[in-house]
Amino acid sequence: MTSQQRPLLIPSPRTPGPEELPYTPVSGDSLIPISSYPKPTSGMDSNSQIEINENSYPVPGFVRNSSSHRSISSIQSKTSSGHSVREVNFSEMSTRTVRYGSRGADSGGTSKYSVLTFLPRNLFEQFHRIAYIYFLVIAILNQLPQLAVFGREASILPLAFVLFVTAIKDAYEDYRRHRSDKIENNRLAWVLLDDKFQQKKWKDLRVGEIIKVYGNETLPCDMVLLSTSDTTGVAYVQTTNLDGESNLKTRYAKQETQTKNPEKERITGLIKCEKPNRNVYGFQANMDLDGKRISLGPSNVILRGCELRNTDWAIGVAVYAGRETKAMLNNSGAPSKRSRLESRMNREIIFLSIFLVTLCTIVCICHGVWLRRHKDELDLMQSCRTTQSLK
């Protein structure tokens, strides 16, 4: 190819190199390897091994968990002095799908309840309404024969009916969330397996896998860009689902990886990145590739929930998946909504309850004092023959 036919490569925005911004790993950093699968040759399987060496992260008491040669060992999350260490071993990934826990599996959820937690948690949330607590206390007091004013069932049924109807409504709403989460987690992504990109469910994605996203598709995880359809390594993404902004943002693949084709040649590298966090505008990492250390920044990563626009395809390596993604970390779950009127009513009920208790206390004290002073006259009153009990 002559110099006139050679495509013009526009470098991505310059980020400080390792000599200007040295990367000092700490025990809390995550080591995410990059790997693709070479074509099988004699004496070599179509697989690759991605490993995080715990020697770089000395943690007392760390034990490596071994697995068989035909399985994928789970990510071992060990904690020591508040820091986590992650180790990933890949072996014949196309033969078996193994999920390695909520910290690694790309299964996100927005639901509030499970089958076991629905009843206690729903009742706990409902009794945040002070009115329910007030009527519950009245119903309990009415069960005592000395304090009963009306029928025992009559004091329980209204409150039980309201709690039951509200629980049915909350259960239906959470069922719809579960259904939406299932649809989201069962969406398909293109993952590099056996020298070619194959479809895989979002919930089965793993950190370290190389993923290909096509135009107008949603990102299934947080991934560092390796290459794009543009010869300069530029990709355009829309972050409406993440921050509400509709304008397109540019992301860049490093020129060291832009020229590599993971389907035709082996890519072996190591990414040292920060622990999962909620900062959607920040990302600090270094990538060791072919003996070089490449600095990575926010312009080199695309987050889950973003949509690829004006770009035919983009290839990247997953660095955060599932509940570790920035989008899921910022998702606080379905909120328990409270209207302004309800909040004011709670305050009024508290005030009225305090006033009622104070009034009852004063009346009881005055009644006791009156009985003491007129105990000799009580025998004359047919309704107050309690002289013997007061002596």
TrEMBL record:
<keyword id="KW-1133">Transmembrane helix</keyword>
<feature type="transmembrane region" description="Helical">
    <location>
        <begin position="349"/>
        <end position="371"/>
    </location>
</feature>
<dbReference type="InterPro" id="IPR032631">
    <property type="entry name" value="P-type_ATPase_N"/>
</dbReference>
<dbReference type="InterPro" id="IPR001757">
    <property type="entry name" value="P_typ_ATPase"/>
</dbReference>
<dbReference type="GO" id="GO:0005524">
    <property type="term" value="F:ATP binding"/>
</dbReference>
<dbReference type="GO" id="GO:0005886">
    <property type="term" value="C:plasma membrane"/>
</dbReference>
<dbReference type="Pfam" id="PF16209">
    <property type="entry name" value="PhoLip_ATPase_N"/>
</dbReference>
<keyword id="KW-0472">Membrane</keyword>
<feature type="domain" description="P-type ATPase N-terminal">
    <location>
        <begin position="110"/>
        <end position="155"/>
    </location>
</feature>
<dbReference type="GO" id="GO:0045332">
    <property type="term" value="P:phospholipid translocation"/>
</dbReference>
<protein>
    <submittedName>
        <fullName>Phospholipid-transporting ATPase 1</fullName>
    </submittedName>
</protein>
<feature type="domain" description="P-type ATPase A">
    <location>
        <begin position="187"/>
        <end position="251"/>
    </location>
</feature>
<keyword id="KW-0812">Transmembrane</keyword>
<dbReference type="InterPro" id="IPR059000">
    <property type="entry name" value="ATPase_P-type_domA"/>
</dbReference>
<dbReference type="Pfam" id="PF00122">
    <property type="entry name" value="E1-E2_ATPase"/>
</dbReference>
<dbReference type="InterPro" id="IPR008250">
    <property type="entry name" value="ATPase_P-typ_transduc_dom_A_sf"/>
</dbReference>
<dbReference type="GO" id="GO:0140326">
    <property type="term" value="F:ATPase-coupled intramembrane lipid transporter activity"/>
</dbReference>
<dbReference type="GO" id="GO:0016887">
    <property type="term" value="F:ATP hydrolysis activity"/>
</dbReference>
<dbReference type="InterPro" id="IPR023298">
    <property type="entry name" value="ATPase_P-typ_TM_dom_sf"/>
</dbReference>
<feature type="region of interest" description="Disordered">
    <location>
        <begin position="1"/>
        <end position="46"/>
    </location>
</feature>
